[in-house]
Structure formats: structure tokens, C-alpha cells
Design brief:
The chain is an alpha/beta fold. It contains ten helices and five strands. Helix 4 links the parallel strand 1 and strand 2. The longest helix has 21 residues. The radius of gyration is 21 Å and the shape is globular. Bound molecules: zinc ion. The site of zinc ion has 7 residues, from helix 6.
């Protein structure tokens, strides 16, 4: 008996067919695409020209291609718990750099979602372990907007508002990066947007934070090439 047969049997014995279903689903996908669009794989094999970098939550219910009805090749995607843009996270910084400087994306979308477990957990005092270091970044967003959030009596509404405010702060965090400010100066792009996905309706809400230049940033975060140290010498 081959190793692959052994693996298949073990999964069946475990009564966990979810992985086998994914492989079967892949077969159906290949057959469907071959019938509907015979050039599909040949086109994508040549390379990618996505128009947008999507920074979203890892939540399994917020499947980027599905909720935006976009084809593979349209979106360059980075996802983590609660769609955070942390300035010491080389993962997200690398995704932004690659998307902006090599894929030349026109847009960056930060997309959160209501009923976000990460945001909800950040409002609790329970000690969860390692993830508390990550959730701390959301607590910082709370602290920035504590007056507004504390005035909301209903806990569900307060959490929903924190989801929105967190997206807005992560939009600003994208814009605070050297990568994005340099691209604005040299290429006049990308446009940075903040959206929230509603699990109940399936609709995306535009939070109307659409930033395309350093004038929208607080002064302390703006890089200015004419003000570099020693430039007068
Ligand atoms: Zn989430």
C-alpha cells in the first residue's frame, strides 16, 4: 500500500473528511474552469497584475474573492487577526512594499468586519496568552477613542464602533509607512480605503476614509524630503 493510500485511510478513520473534501473541491474547480474558461490557467500562469492590496481579517467567514466577486489575479491579499497594520510587523510591511513597489497596485483596502472575534477579545480582561500581545494593538485604538466608545452604552454597538475605528486607524497606519508616502510623492498612488463587512447582510460599508496624500495625515507622521537632517549643509 502506498503512503498516499495510508494517509487517506487515516483521515477516514479519524472521521475528519474536511481535508478530503477540499481536495475533491479542487478537482471540481479545475473541471469547471476548464469548461467555462479554457484559457484561465494559462493566463494566470504568466503572472499577476492585481489592482488592489487587500488587508483583511483571517476570519473564515470573510473570504475576500467571494465577498467581492473578484477573479483570482485581481487582489493581492494579506490577512491577520483583526486586520491590523502594526509598524513592527515585517509581514504586513513586506506585503505593502511588494504590492506598492513591484505590483504597482492603485489601491489598498483595509477591511474589517462586524462580529470580529479579535476586536471582541480586545475588550475583555481575560488573559489569553500569546495573542494578548497582538490584541494590545486594538486596546491602543480603544484608548485613542475612549471618550466616544465609553459613551456607547450597548456593548454590541460599542464593539461594532470599535471595529470601524480600528479599520480607520489601520488605514492611517498604512499611510504612515515610508513605502506609501514615497509612492505618493513619486507616483501619486496608492489610494487607501477603509471598509467594514457585515456578516448579517453580506454588504461592505465604505467608512469614507479615502486617503491619497500626506496632507490627510497628522503632521508628526509626514515625511518631508526637504527637511532631512543635515540638508542645510
Ligand atoms: Zn475578525
Amino acid at each position: 500500500m502506498s503512503d498516499s493510500h495510508q494517509t487517506t485511510l487515516n483521515l477516514k478513520e479519524m472521521h475528519d473528511l474536511s481535508v478530503l473534501r477540499m481536495l475533491a473541491g479542487n478537482q471540481r474547480f479545475v473541471e469547471r474552469m476548464a469548461a467555462e474558461d479554457p484559457g484561465f490557467f494559462g493566463r494566470l500562469e504568466k503572472g499577476q497584475t492585481p489592482h488592489t492590496l487587500w488587508i483583511g481579517c483571517s476570519d473564515s467567514r470573510v473570504s475576500t474573492d467571494v465577498i467581492t466577486d473578484t477573479e483570482p489575479g485581481s487582489l493581492f491579499v494579506h490577512r491577520n487577526i483583526a486586520n491590523m497594520v502594526v509598524h513592527t510587523d515585517f509581514n504586513v510591511l513586506s506585503a505593502i512594499d511588494y504590492a506598492v513597489n513591484h505590483l504597482n497596485v492603485q489601491h489598498i483596502v483595509v477591511c474589517g468586519h462586524y462580529n470580529c472575534g479579535g476586536v471582541a477579545a480586545s475588550l475583555e480582561a481575560a488573559e489569553l496568552g500569546l495573542i494578548d500581545n497582538w490584541l494590545r494593538n486594538i486596546k491602543d485604538v480603544y484608548r485613542l477613542h475612549a471618550a466616544e466608545l465609553n459613551a456607547i452604552v450597548d456593548k454590541k454597538e460599542r464593539t461594532a464602533r470599535l471595529v470601524e475605528l480600528n479599520v480607520m486607524e489601520q488605514v492611517y497606519n498604512v499611510c504612515k509607512t515610508y513605502t506609501v508616502q514615497k509612492a505618493w510623492r513619486e507616483h501619486g498612488r496608492p489610494f487607501v480605503h477603509g471598509w467594514v463587512y457585515d456578516l448579517k447582510t453580506g454588504l461592505l460599508k465604505d467608512l469614507a476614509v479615502n486617503i491619497s496624500g500626506r496632507r490627510d495625515l497628522e503632521e508628526i507622521y509626514r515625511f518631508d524630503v526637504d527637511q532631512t537632517i543635515g540638508s542645510e549643509h
